[in-house]
């Protein structure tokens, strides 16, 4: 996707709400002296909306079925057969998210350096507190770049998203202390010739981290986090040999 990355730091500084800012607004909390990114999709509240939509879609299908069971209106029948599976899918997806949120608190990622720079070496620790009988024995992580471009095609607005870089970080044994928090840690290096984070109204470059939890061979859940990589080269003492 050929668009130029022209980043203007401006006078407001990183994290301000002006165009070109890339820092998350409030998606972090202080912890152990580091920034701690939080995956909010793991929260209980996220499960409520798909469950409500699932009930609404399924309810519409049931209403159409009983009120128009002898009707020859093919449009109503099409709506019924479309809404029913969508409603059931959304409802059970919400239930699945709710069950997971009752077993585990939202995932957190603590990078040793924040924000990052091109060529930077750092470590990151993933934390997931167990609320109930959740069991985790290993975790897998990867870091990747997603490019997003929004443009007009006639009267339509098109969003083009492409994963342009990925680096598997491998597995980590999930350790657990007396605080019921599962932890996994990885050492990472941002490529020196990679792209910096970038966010304007129609173009974005996002550095992402994905962590998956496993119980044996079964994948339990995953968390995703957005990193920030500044358009600067890391100092020599911040780069591993």
What's the short version?
The chain is α+β, with helices and mostly antiparallel strands and 241 residues long. It folds into two domains: 28-43 and 106-238, Immunoglobulin-like (Sandwich), CATH 2.60.40; 45-102. Helices cover 22% and strands 41% of the residues.
Fraction in beta strands: 35-45%
pLDDT average, as an integer?
76
Shape: flat
Spatial gap, N to C terminus: 32 Å
Strands of the biggest beta sheet: in what spatial order? 1-2-3-5-9-8
CATH architecture assignment name of the largest domain: Sandwich
- Supply the number of structural domains: 2
Tell me how many strands there are: 13
CATH level 1 class label of the largest domain? Mainly Beta
Computed structural class: alpha+beta
Give an overview in words.
This protein folds into two domains: 28-43 and 106-238, Immunoglobulin-like (Sandwich), CATH 2.60.40.640; 45-102. Strand 10 and strand 11 (203-215) form a beta hairpin. It has helices spanning 44-67, 74-103; strands spanning 28-31, 34-38, 108-111, 116-118, 121-129, 138-153, 156-173, 175-176, 181-189, 198-199, 203-215, 218-227, 229-233. It is flat, with a radius of gyration of 22 Å. By secondary structure, it is α+β, with helices and mostly antiparallel strands. The longest helix has 30 residues, at 74-103.
